[in-house]
Specification:
Layout: E1 3-4, H1 13-25, E2 38-43, H2 49-60, E3 64-69, E4 77-78, E5 91-92, H3 93-102, E6 106-110, H4 118-122, H5 125-134, E7 138-140, H6 148-159, E8 168-174, H7 184-198, E9 207-212, H8 221-224, E10 228-229, H9 233-237, E11 242-246, H10 276-279, E12 286-288, H11 301-305, H12 311-334
Parallel strand pairs: 1-7, 2-3, 2-6, 4-5, 6-7, 8-9, 8-11, 9-10, 11-12
This protein binds N-acetyl-L-norvaline (AN0) and phosphoric acid mono(formamide)ester.
Length: 337
């Protein structure tokens, strides 16, 4: 595996979940695999979970880890080609990337969507520049359109949470937020849920996936395909076993000029905040969120603190998903593939 952006990059999800379970049982099982190898984690944006869990994952495999915060000490980087560099940017990404590649064996990239230029973001321009110019396998730690380490951790969490005697109903709910956020988390969550739903034995007991959101927030079909959208949030929550809340800004699918915007005044959407009223419609559902989360905006204190809330197990599983992904990359590097 030279790249990791999509569910399909792992091959079968059942096999990936089995590897996750194996690593969870003994997270140092492959501690000799990455000896004398180095993982470079490059952050263009803030992070708590990804920074810590991915570092821990590489250490589980016996690797050295270098973390680079581009905005805290590195030269300011120009990313677009053809620019006359007479501003505050001292270095171009096209030199910086091959230089970074000299010091490591695998690279993780966090580079959020700018939310201004849909074409640039959805082409994953920065990620593919790293793939092309580093000469190293590159995995996404949330790039412009995807957050696969999060979605894989969420899939592990859902798979290991039993719902006796029925298919699991998973509902992804848009929730309000005062600022524009990327679509990476909902894109990946939808992609991974649909991949698991479509794979025979993808997840124990099978699953049904529903998206609920206000009109105008339709996600890109390349990620959500034919997923069911229910615009009535209360109806969508009926009988749900898992509620996955997330805000995202306008994906610009129907109105490209609205790309990256918060539509209207967020105060008018506060009825979408996940609280007891909506949770009462569910099958005593587990609440999920990737974190960081704004309380009493996305979710009420009571719902996130309920014993059925899975936000901390999800974060814990980030170490597991990252260990599986880096292990795959290192194994293939050593096998010369
Ligand atoms: C980011 C997002 O919504 O994509 C990161 C989530 C893991 N969240 C914020 O910027 C608050
Ligand atoms: N969920 C997640 O990726 O969190 P961070 O932004 O803190 O890494």
């Amino acid at each position: 595996m030279r790249t990791f952006l999509n569910a399909q990059d792992l091959g079968g999800l059942r096999q990936a979940l089995a590897e996750a379970a194996e690593i969870k049982k003994d997270r140092y099982k492959y501690v000799d695999l990455g000896r004398n190898m180095t993982a470079l984690l490059v952050f263009f944006n803030n992070s708590l979970r990804t920074r810590l869990s991915t570092q821990k994952a590489a250490q589980n495999l016996g690797m050295n880890v270098i973390v680079l915060d581009v905005n805290a000490g590195a030269w300011k980087l120009e990313t677009k080609r053809g620019v006359v560099m007479d501003g505050d940017k001292s270095e171009h990404l096209l030199e910086a990337i091959p230089v970074m590649g000299c010091y490591c064996d695998v690279i993780g990239i966090r580079s959020f969507a700018g939310l201004k230029d849909r074409e640039y973001d959805y082409a994953e321009t920065v990620y593919w520049q790293f793939v092309r110019h580093s000469g190293r396998p590159v995995f996404a730690m949330e790039t412009a359109t995807v957050h696969p380490l999060q979605a894989f951790a969420d899939l592990i969490t859902i798979d290991e949470t039993p719902v006796p005697g029925k298919r699991k109903k998973v509902v992804m709910s848009w929730a309000p937020h005062p600022r524009s956020l990327p679509q990476a988390v909902p894109n990946s969550f939808a992609q991974w849920m649909l991949a698991a739903a479509n794979e025979p034995d993808g997840i124990d007991g099978g699953l049904d996936f529903v998206i609920t959101q206000p009109h105008g927030y339709e996600l890109d079909p390349q990620f959500v395909g034919g997923a069911r959208i229910e615009y009535d949030q209360m109806k969508a929550f009926e009988g749900a076993d898992f509620i996955y809340a997330k805000n995202w800004s306008c994906p610009g699918v129907t109105n490209p000029q609205d790309y990256g915007k918060v539509l209207g005044d967020y105060h008018d959407y506060l009825s979408w905040t996940v609280g007891e009223r909506q949770m009462a419609m569910t099958n005593n559902a587990h609440f999920m969120h990737c974190l960081p989360v704004r309380r009493n905006m996305i979710v009420t204190d009571d719902v996130i603190e309920a014993p059925t809330s899975l936000v901390i197990p999800e974060a814990a599983n980030r170490e597991i998903s990252a260990t599986v992904v880096i292990k795959r990359m290192v194994e293939e590097l050593k096998a010369g593939r």
